[in-house]
Structures are given as structure tokens and as C-alpha cells.
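Input protein
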Amino acid sequence: MNSSPPLAAPPRLRRSLGVIDGVALAASSTAATTSVGIGMGALAATVGLHAPAILLVAFLPILGIATAYARLNRSEPNMGSGYVWVGKSLGPWLGFLTGWFTLVGTVIFMAYTSAVTGSVVLQFANKAGLHDLFGLRLDPNSTALSTVLGLFVLVAVTVTAVTGVRHATRFQTWLLVFEYAVLLVFCGWAIVTGDHGFAWSWFDPFAIGDGTAFAQGLVLAVFFFWGWDAAFSVTEETKDTRDVGRGGFIALFTMLALFLYGSVAFQREMSLPELIEQGPQGLTYLGEKLAAEPWATLPLLALMCSAVASLQSSVIPTARGLHAMGRDRTMGPLWTRISPRYGSPAAGTVAVMAVAALMALLALAIPKLNEMILAAVNSIGLIVALYYGLTALACAVRFRADLRAAPARAVRSVLAPGLSGLALLGIGGYLAHSYATMSDHFELSPDNGWFMLAVPAGVVLSGLVMAAWAKYRRRSAYFDRGGFSLAAPEPPSAL
């Protein structure tokens, strides 16, 4: 009697990661060196010399939100994270929007970071004495040239992400060791030798007199911390799901220490006008002030490593978020394909790269790289505040029974997440109102309130359109189940 051969099991994601991999992914995605190196100028332009204060204030709601992520992940580990948790607790429409905000915000970040990476590579080429190539001037401030070069880097890191997430996180670990060593040495040098006096008022948030400046500075500071939640995107590829939360918390506290350390160092070495003027080239400028060549090039090399690692760590969680949405049929089947060779969502990872590359090319409409960076930070900050706030509220709603059954545990599962979520949503709402009233016309400029508001408004509108398409056209059961997601099936037992 003929018997048909057994069907081969479909390819699955491989559980190969540990806590170190989670730390590497979260820390690379947060990109402390990049944030310090190019973001301190933007923060100084907003809150003056009170960057340490606004970073400390921003850390409090972020810590509450991290607590929410860890609690939700212990209850329901899923690579879709906020998309799944918000959908089940607050409803499928808000759940879909949370997933959409996360994905679009990260793709926007990848598009802009590609240009930043290209600019850093060009700065490095100039340092090496290469200023022209085949008649083309290698200008780090050229948005077009920086973007094109950055896209080549994006393709390269996408290849490493496709061939295996463990290899990618190990590569990120070595990049982190180098860039943190450079950052610690040069910032420590600046703290010791800087000729601008230290002042405790730098840590006083009440010294920021303007409410709009405080709100915008807070959103910028939240953006500094953004990315630690990338560790939760690989929860289905981690041997012990508790390692995901551990990795996220370790990375988060490390980022706080580095941000405070860097902000104090910059303000010891540079005056406020210098900070604002140098903008995204602040770390390079610091290296030139403190050391002679070739040592002065080390901060620039560290910045390049940070940008590359950040790009790679953005591709990985985005593809996995789309994979979670794809298996619920809220997104197309392309995102559910797992490479049998590499055990990764290879097709989705390449598609994410292609979308980010297209957006980077569209971003060339903004003429100056500095304006492009600042516009992106302002826009993404509101998006991040929205999806972090919704996820924290989802935790408070889901575990509200702890208020009666376990009051001590309720502090971590209900009160801290709930207050943190409301704080971020409130600040986001205040800032959106400020943007809407600060300008009387639309202009492609980071100083134009309507432009800064148009980007998050467009993300919300497009998310509603995509949610309607998923519900009524794809007929995804995610909406009929009230946001309950289709978790990845467990592998068959050997018994």
C-alpha cells in the first residue's frame, strides 16, 4: 500500500536569543551615541541648558511604560506587543492603530537615519582627506548625497538582519562596546577639562519657564529613549521570554546614565550658542576640541557605528511587528513568510527596507539635512507618545483587578503604567495644540507648526484607512475577536 510522505513542517522562527541579545537590540535601537551626538543641539535649542532636567523628567513615564511592557509580555509574549495588547484590552481599532504607529514611526526613523548615516560616512571620508570623487564633491551637508549613500548602508544591514537575528545582535554588541568606550572617554574628558562651570540648575525642570518649550523638550527627550522596546519584538525568538524584559530594563537604565553623562559633558565643554550652532555634528565638534588627529576622529567613528547599529536594529522589530499583523490577516501574506534557510521573516525584512528607502528619497523635498533631522524628531516624538501611552493604558485596564486583589502589585501593573500613559498622551495633546496655533500657513520647515502636526495627523488618518481595509476588505478575524491575536503555534511535542 502506497503511503504519501509526511508533510514537512512549515519554517518557523528560531528561539536562539538570550538576555545579552535583548540588551544589544534595545540599546542599538535606542542609539545613545547617535542621540547624544546629534540630538543635544536640538534639545539645547528647545530647553536651553536644562537638558539633564528634561531627560530625567522624561525617564519617569518611560520607566512606567517599560513596566507595562514587561508585565504584559509576561502575561502574553507576542512579537506584536502593543498591537496585540492594546487590541485585546482597549479594542481592535486602537490595537491596529498602535501597531501602525509603531511601524510607521520606525520606518520614518529608518528613512531619516539613513541620511544621517550617509552624512557621518561622508564626514569620515572628509577626515580621511577624501573631499571629491569622480568630480563629485563629498559634502556631508548634502541631503541628496547623504541619503543615497545611507541607502547603501541600509541595504547592507538588511542583509545581516535577513541571515539571522542572532548574528545581527552579536554584531551590534561589538559595535556597542566600541562606541560606548569612545563616548565614555571623550565625555569624561570634557567633564574634567571643560571651562563652563557646572550648575545644579541644569537639573531643575522648574527653571524651564515656557510651557510649550517644556512640552516640546519632553517629547524630544522621550524620543531619545525611544527604541528600548525593540527587545520585545523578538520575544518569540528568545529562549526565556523573561529575558526580554530584563534586556529592556538594563538597556533603559544604561541609556539614562549615558544621556545624563553626555548632556553634562557637552554643557561643560560648549556654550549654549555653540551647542545650538553645531547641531547634529556636536560629537564630532567635541572630538576636534579635545584631541588632535587621529584621536579626534574616534567620536565620528563611534557615531557611524551607532547609526549603522540603529538602522539594523530598526529593520528587525519592524519586520516582526508586520509578521504578527500578517498572521492575523490585518496585513498581507507577504509579511508571514519565514525563510526555511535562515529562520527569519526574510521577505518582510527586505520589503521594510524598500519602503524606508522610498521614504528616504521622498524626504529629499526638505533641502537641508539639519532641518530634515529636526522635523523627523518632532514628528516621530508625537507618534511615539501616542503608541507608548496607549500600550501603558492597556496594561492598566487589563490588570485593574490587582487594585483589589493585590494592591502592592497594582503599583507596577496599574498605577505606574496608567499615570505614565496619561502623562504622555497629555503632553502629546498639549504639544499638538501648540503646533496647531503657532503658525498661520503650511510650510516644509521644522519651525512650521502645521508641518510638524501634519505628519502625525497623516499617520493617524492612514492608520484608520488601513484598519478599515483590514476589517471590511480582508475581513480579518482580529476585529471580530475583539483584538485577540493569533499567536504563533507551538511546535509539536516529540512525545
